[in-house]
Batch of 3 targets.
Target 1
Amino acid sequence: MTHDREQTGLRERKKARTRQALVAAALRLFAERGFDAVTTEEIAAEADVSQRTLFRYFASKEEIVLSVHDQIEEGFRLKLAARPAEEHPFTAMVNAFADAWSELEPADVAAQLQVLRISNDSSRLHGARQERVCSHQNRLALLIARRAGVDPRLDPRPELLTAAFTSALQVAFGRSCRAAGQDNLLEAVDECLALLPTALTADWDTANTPAHTSTPDADGQILPVGG
Amino acid sequence: MTHDREQTGLRERKKARTRQALVAAALRLFAERGFDAVTTEEIAAEADVSQRTLFRYFASKEEIVLSVHDQIEEGFRLKLAARPAEEHPFTAMVNAFADAWSELEPADVAAQLQVLRISNDSSRLHGARQERVCSHQNRLALLIARRAGVDPRLDPRPELLTAAFTSALQVAFGRSCRAAGQDNLLEAVDECLALLPTALTADWDTANTPAHTSTPDADGQILPVGG
DNA sequence: AAGATTATGGCAGCAACTGACACTTGGCAA
DNA sequence: TTGCCAAGTGTCAGTTGCTGCCATAATCTT
């Protein structure tokens, strides 16, 4: 990712630059006016290419945004595959998530957050993103099944675990976007992943509410999850 | 639902009939040729209305299919609100699901299954459905929060619980559709909902695999969920 | 430098929608 | 019953996402 200048030819460099320009233009315009209020022709004009070229780089308007989202999902799967096999599947996913985000550069982090914000703007885009998350989750399930040595077609638990994990992440993303603060995403994720197992099992409608529920302005981490 | 003939006027009856004809035509055509291969004009022609009229009844092509899906989600929320307050939130949702499906007529059950099958056919439709599921899950979270007496903006557990529950349902739906048999949906749901809590917590990568994992052709219910 | 490969642009066209307008139909009261 | 008003419908034009086709221009190879 650092110096592939001499490896690739001019053609590939140009393509990468065009693609990058399209993504940058799209994200900026979407953030300014919202996903639905920006046409593909405007994005293409902003990146100094024709609309036809835009659709040669991205299969759809949503794809431009989702391509950014794909980066971190792919990184997450790579990190998961690299986690030691002794770890519990859930722990491995929690740590893989932290690994993937920790190696992002600040600009990439900002792009990811912007994608989350933009996704909440349009129901069309949100649906497309959900579908991506779904197929990502399916690939996660295969990784988990292989790691645990079970047949994913007989045992539903890999799918169930990854589905619960992924949806907890979505909850954290949603809450983080809804909150006024901007850089609380990691904390929201930590909190949600820590609460997920107990939310299912414990009798939380009676007494043992989590500590911060009664003290909403606690700013410390609820439970450290990183490795 | 049985005899509202004398309550409503001719105008409303006509509207209901048109709407029903559109849904029936769409489902049939989609099942025959796939969601993407059917145009809205064809659906309109099949229901003897103009394309413009179709879009006065449904906001989008996906909406025609999703309107069927909405019925059961709405029924589910009604049943959940009717469950006794003493039940654990998770148990209440499991029972509400069974309640909602048990009161469906056979034709409605068939329609729901067809919707699931059609949804897997098109990525666009699948994304739209996921988005519906998402907003449904948000409303579920509000119901659960009220039932448990917690503030959903401070306590993420209602969202987490409903997200995990909903995604477990999706897993069950997907597995049921992928399976060769046709009427195993309820069993798949029972199995997934029963396995969900343990999939998160227990060390299932070592020993305690569920009973039917080694005996895939067990046909009994894994765990009764009804009330 | 010439030829092969590949990226790009322009254009026509399809399908999902939408707004505007005219027309028909059902509901309701004089 | 008659007549008026509201509501449903069809037609048409137009926008937008997206694709196939072909000509052109840029890059790579030899």
Target 2
Amino acid sequence: MALEHAILVSLTERAGSGYELAHRFDRSIGFFWPATHQQIYRVLRRMDEAGWVTHTEVAQEGRPDKKVYQVSATGRDELARWLAEPVDPAVLRDGLAVKIRGASLGDTAAVLREVVRHRGEHAALLEVYRGIQRRDFPKPAKLSGRELHQYLVLRGGIRAEESFLAWCDEVIEALRSEQS
Amino acid sequence: MALEHAILVSLTERAGSGYELAHRFDRSIGFFWPATHQQIYRVLRRMDEAGWVTHTEVAQEGRPDKKVYQVSATGRDELARWLAEPVDPAVLRDGLAVKIRGASLGDTAAVLREVVRHRGEHAALLEVYRGIQRRDFPKPAKLSGRELHQYLVLRGGIRAEESFLAWCDEVIEALRSEQS
DNA sequence: TCTAGCTATGCAACTCGTTGCACTGCACCT
DNA sequence: AGGTGCAGTGCAACGAGTTGCATAGCTAGA
């Protein structure tokens, strides 16, 4: 549904190959719309056939040739059309929540350890986000246009992680005092 | 991967038919692990073949017969096994974030309207969560066991929605002042 | 009376996303 | 000399999830 559009957004900012896009997805837009290289290659081909992007084969020395994609006028129209259309709300699908809900049907201590582990992973992700914020947006008050919008999305990630961490702490405390 | 286990958790709490489960999913566990009736029917059949659940056909008057499923010993073992095993972290996939990031490539005002609309939907969901909290968990300090765990998961939903709303407000304010 | 909605289950076809693998050549480490 | 990792594209198979439809009788409202 919308991987196409996430790619259009990313390619409009800068042209690139499938491989390169896959890496961009790992570091920025993919925090909010994850995709593997396989998916990206397949969708790029479809978009190419639909005329939303065009590609140029670029020969390289010492490494494989690549196809650099860029957004066509049709692609820009499609992106504008999509931007004006309503989006479905994001759905959560959280296995950890299911586990917590079922904790008393198994080893509660193991579930608690899982919560602690997830807390750690999310804390690390939050640090990544904060690093990006410090590096790329040191003065948020002065932002506008594309940079402002990138910053706002990052803020969403930061807020989501902060709230997840706070939740983990609440859960950890409650499960610990229940056990003792 | 884990719909099976979400169903096991729900069925352990109370036996039920596929139809009934689908409704439970719409109102409780499905907030964190959404599923359609189709998926539930298919997975229930698979679980039945695997021996994790058993079913009893119940004839009814004035309405179709139903199959009431309940968790078998094997199913309880499987659930305990899964509870002790690590879960993958939840992935976000948020079309709204992609839109905000691409806002300057289309109609920013339309994107802003979308953010406002999502804010409304999430505010409504938050009210649903708070209603459940008031009704089912008026005295959270006294909870333990299954009820405590249900409460904690609900807390996660409340926190996530609160933080989403705060983000929407930040985005709305920033986009509005950018436009004027 | 006609329409709509609830209860109840299920098939078929489809899209979306994941996983494992394949091929090439270079660079770097041990 | 051998393993690992990067750059680059891609196929094939699978699993998960969605959508549309079918069937059937009951109930409640316009």
Target 3
Amino acid sequence: MTHNNPPFPSADHDHKNCVSHALKNAEAYCQQQGLRLTKLRHQVLELIWANHQPVGAYELLDQLTHEGRKAAPPTVYRALDFLMENGLVHRISSRNAYVGCSNAGHEHTAQFLICESCGQVAELDNAQIGSVIAKGANQLGFTVAQWTLEISGTCDQCKHRSQDE
Amino acid sequence: MTHNNPPFPSADHDHKNCVSHALKNAEAYCQQQGLRLTKLRHQVLELIWANHQPVGAYELLDQLTHEGRKAAPPTVYRALDFLMENGLVHRISSRNAYVGCSNAGHEHTAQFLICESCGQVAELDNAQIGSVIAKGANQLGFTVAQWTLEISGTCDQCKHRSQDE
DNA sequence: ACTGTAATGTTATATTGTAACATAATGCAG
DNA sequence: CTGCATTATGTTACAATATAACATTACAGT
């Protein structure tokens, strides 16, 4: 049911389509859950997807303003709060930046590959990682509420690109 | 060789000893690596361990000032940079806070259990997690440079404490 | 239409982190 | 030991990120 974005989409992928797909997913999800995906929230979510890599809150604020909306920091942060609470957006805390979640409605976990070269982020959904984490934590009597895994490095494309030089 | 802090040390553990142990480790490590653990850096590291849970940079700044040192933000941040570069301290990015690293000199990876109730943090060193991550990333052609795993939840002690109420 | 709730607007400010340049301490070659 | 290069620290100013608090508007259900 969820859109399956390839990790690190190639430069020539159908970006417009991929954004609108994500939005349709979000709309459907909110509908189904009785969540109010207001115009503002929709707009912010669209901007996040359109950037297609982690965006800062103040960058979103600028973009909102350019789209003609009157906005201040709380405008953006409140929209982000809503989107995060409902699993439509993740925060990459090592970068103070936000990305669209490719499988809305999932648990509150996230795994990111962050390419230091091109800045793109791919979201993983590796069940094995999840289960190993759960196991490790439980052994210590720790009850897991949520977690984030942020992996920095170099993506395949950038590796090849640098070899070409 | 490294001090093996139990995850989530009990309230009655020998705190003073545990701090001085960590400092001795750090001193030895720096000696051996030819790193300059200056007075300032030593002082900051000591404060971090003394807090024994994630501390913010400005909190450290306050504490430094109370110890009579003239300090401004860069004072702290530079010490933190040094300590992090050399694996003596980790940054918990989901909290903008810093903790002592229980096994200095390790790779640039970190796994934290963060108790939402008592605020304490335990550092894991689960090799299985590391290898699953490496494997998952490599499958996508991604070269891992470093990673952080931040797990929020409730520690064993807090779980029992809340049952007693 | 009326009303309570949820969402947004607005202003001000808190918190976290850096840039840039000046001064002081340290290690080392001669 | 002296001067020199390097590294560390002091100092001032500011950038970037995030929230508090209160006013206003929109909305859903009656």
